[in-house]
Design a protein that fits this description.
Layout lengths: L4 H29 L3 H19 L1 H8 L2 H22 L3 H10 L4
Helix pairs in contact: 1-2, 1-4, 2-4
Length: 105
């Protein structure tokens, strides 16, 4: 069965949201392991929300309307907070090292 361009775009969008939701969830688990329970709990819940929204997109969209806006909002807030946290911890050079050298010390 051949997919239309719209179906392929929806599939790729769902995969992207799943990847972001999984990374937010994993960051929350990492925070729990380092005894930052409040931040870890918030990240785990946000990750689970993004994962649930992206998996049950069709069902939730019928009740909430434009679910994409909620997903993008949660993702952008969490990623901005993670970015602020990384720059505050002076880890920007480590990120640049990962990007350019494909490995981190």
């Amino acid at each position: 069965m051949k997919r239309t361009k719209h179906q392929r775009n929806e599939l790729m969008e769902m995969i992207a949201h799943l990847c972001v939701g999984l990374s937010i969830f994993m960051k929350g688990i990492d925070k729990f392991e380092h005894h930052h329970t409040l931040i870890g709990l918030m990240l785990v819940l946000a990750g689970l929300m993004v994962l649930a929204f992206s998996i049950y997109h069709k069902k939730i969209e019928s009740t909430l309307g434009k679910i994409k806006y909620y997903i993008f909002g949660i993702e952008s807030i969490v990623m901005a907070l993670i970015g602020i946290r990384i720059t505050r911890m002076d880890r920007i050079c480590c990120i640049m090292h990962i990007i350019w050298c494909q490995s981190c010390f």
